[in-house]
């Protein structure tokens, strides 16, 4: 496992971009209407993600993103495994954004990352990302046997990230209340993601 503190966000290949996410959610609004609990679970996750993007974007000046993006390399691309939402937020703020990145690889190709910082365990990762060394949780989901990288999901956080609305159900409820205040033909856009919204009103 290796860590890069400031990779250009443009060099990463996400599974889902903000534009794609808006399109998917807008199609779901047309198909299913605004009663979000009637939506398929995957679409509920997608609209909950948009709330996160808006909220993270609004708070970037006071809460910079410290969680690294988890990637693996496929041919010449760095494919995002975990962190699409953070990447959406950073790219919304600046086309020249940089982001910290974690990658795992086979030992046979480790020399490709000699300029990156090696991560030998949780404490290395906590120190590199500057989370609380005494109060940080690191969770990983390993890839299936035979993969050319070791981790497919990574979560790290301490007390400073506990208010990030990790509950999808809560974000669905908040988004539901928000949509009930919007016009019938309301659509999500990248400009909407930059709008100042007081989400506490919709809790």
Gyration radius (Cα, Å) is 18 Å
Largest sheet: 6 strands, mixed
**Element string (H = helix, E = strand):** EEHHEEHEEHEEHH
In total, the number of domains comes to: 1
What structural class results from the helix and strand content? alpha/beta
Alpha plus pi helix count: 6
- The proportion of residues forming helix, as a percent range, comes to 25-40%
Question: What is the spatial order of strands in the main beta sheet?
Answer: 2-4-3-5-1-6
- How many runs of DSSP E, i.e. beta strands? 8
> How far apart, in Å, are the first and last alpha carbons?
39 Å
How would you portray this structure in words?
With 203 residues, the protein is α/β, with parallel strands linked by helices. It has one domain (2-202). The chain contains six helices and eight strands. The strands form two sheets. A six-stranded mixed beta sheet has the order 2-4-3-5-1-6, with helices on both faces. Strands 7-8 form a two-stranded antiparallel sheet. A hairpin with a 2-residue loop joins strand 3 and strand 4. The longest helix has 19 residues, at 41-59. It is globular and about 55 Å long. The protein starts with a strand and ends in a 10-residue tail after the last helix.
């Amino acid at each position: 496992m290796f860590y890069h503190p400031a990779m250009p966000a443009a060099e990463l290949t996400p599974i889902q971009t903000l534009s794609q996410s808006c399109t998917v959610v807008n199609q779901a609004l047309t198909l299913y209407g605004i009663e979000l609990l009637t939506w398929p679970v995957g679409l509920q996750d997608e609209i909950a993600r948009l709330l996160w993007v808006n909220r993270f974007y609004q708070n970037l000046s006071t809460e910079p993103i410290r969680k690294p993006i988890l990637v693996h390399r496929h041919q010449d691309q760095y494919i995002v495994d975990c962190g699409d939402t953070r990447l959406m937020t950073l790219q919304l703020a600046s086309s020249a954004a940089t982001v910290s990145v974690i990658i795992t690889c086979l030992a046979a190709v480790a020399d490709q990352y000699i300029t990156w910082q090696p991560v030998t365990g949780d404490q290395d990762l906590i120190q590199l990302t500057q989370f609380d060394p005494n109060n940080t949780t690191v969770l990983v989901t390993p890839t299936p046997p035979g993969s050319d990288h070791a981790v497919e999901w990574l979560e790290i956080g301490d007390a400073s990230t506990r208010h990030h609305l990790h509950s999808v159900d809560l974000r669905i409820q908040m988004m539901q209340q928000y949509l009930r205040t919007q016009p019938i033909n309301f659509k999500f856009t990248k400009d909407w993601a930059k709008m100042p919204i007081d989400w506490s009103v919709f809790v």
